[in-house]
Predict the structure of Inositol 2-dehydrogenase/D-chiro-inositol 3-dehydrogenase.
Amino acid sequence: MLKVGVIGCGAIGREHIKRLSGKLQGSMVTAVCDMYENSAKEAAALVSGSEVKIYTDVQAIVNDPNVDALVVTSPGFAHKEPVLAAVKAGKPVFCEKPLCTTAADCKEIVEAEIVGGKHLVQVGFMRRYDKGYNQVKDLLDSGEFGKPLVVKCTHRAIEVDSSYSTEMAVTDTAIHEIDCLHWLLDDDWESVQVIMGANTKFAHPALRDPQVMIMQSKKGVTVVLEVFVNCKFGYDINCEVVCEDGVIHMPAPSFPTVRKAGKLSTDIETNWINRFIDSYDIELQDWIDHAVKFEVAGPNAWDGYIAEVTADALVEAQASGKIEKIELGETPAFYK
Ligand SMILES: NC(=O)c1ccc[n+]([C@@H]2O[C@H](COP(=O)([O-])OP(=O)(O)OC[C@H]3O[C@@H](n4cnc5c(N)ncnc54)[C@H](O)[C@@H]3O)[C@@H](O)[C@H]2O)c1
Ligand SMILES: O[C@H]1[C@H](O)[C@@H](O)[C@H](O)[C@@H](O)[C@H]1O
């Protein structure tokens, strides 16, 4: 039984606590930590049948002998401290995306992991576990469609509040496609560009929304990604891969088509929690199954670093309006 300590008891922290203590096999939550004690207490109350220790200090929960592994669900800017502490303590750690908010911080984690000599870090890029993306990947990998040429994606959300900035369209939102498409295409990023044109009337005054991000891979695949976080109609994730010998369109979870009051209609998803609910379950089960063996099968610290280098370039491209190059450097032998 993997005894897990969860750091950051907000929205997704509580979702993961419920998974790790009830829904999934082979784990239990033995400790929780939040900078606000009340938040930690409320989260601990979600666990029934066993005692959960409450912490407000990151180092203390990492050092707890009754904690075998950590799940980090604090905001991105607060990921570095707990992830580094877990790596230094030799404990497996699942960190929600992004690994850190700068490439330099991600590199520090990569270097600490290499020094420790054990694969301990998994990043919460759950789309790699999504059924639809995996169906697309299987078709691409079969070779039946020839080589991929162009990928068209949308990442739309109903609305965001005033704390969501123009940069977050990259660092919080597009970061999923940055990782997922690198995995889907089995390719690294060469260059990126951001086009910001007409703004929606629903964006708060400081926010550029929508944004079109164009990313080119090393093998020459062009990705066109629309990020539109005040679309008002739903949480709408789409991905279409145009190949030499055909086009693959990712399926979305389906809803019934109904006839009522002179209308034929089908619901679409409105909430990220539900859109990827199965992926979160499969992702964390996979993490548990490997963490007990000190293995990482999902996206690792190097993937977290790649995503952040690419995100940094996209943020630069937002400001410059130019095509920005991605400089990753050699993949360390430890991650090959
Ligand atoms: N994979 C996904 O689809 C997905 C979905 C939602 C959120 N996330 C990621 O999960 C993380 C958390 O997002 P959220 O929506 O749950 O945020 P949230 O704001 O709801 O919760 C964050 C919690 O962390 C606590 N916290 C802040 N700083 C802390 C610190 N230094 N130490 C301990 N606790 C601290 C806050 O008090 C809060 O309770 C973010 O990195 C976000 O990008 C991922
Ligand atoms: O844009 C949102 C993404 O679609 C979700 O999957 C979460 O990662 C959330 O944190 C982001 O704000």
Observations:
- The pocket of nicotinamide-adenine-dinucleotide (ligand 1) is lined by residues 7-13, 33-36, 39, 58, 73-76, 78, 96-97, 124, 126, 172, 272, 276 (CB under 6 Å).
- The chain has a mean pLDDT of 97.
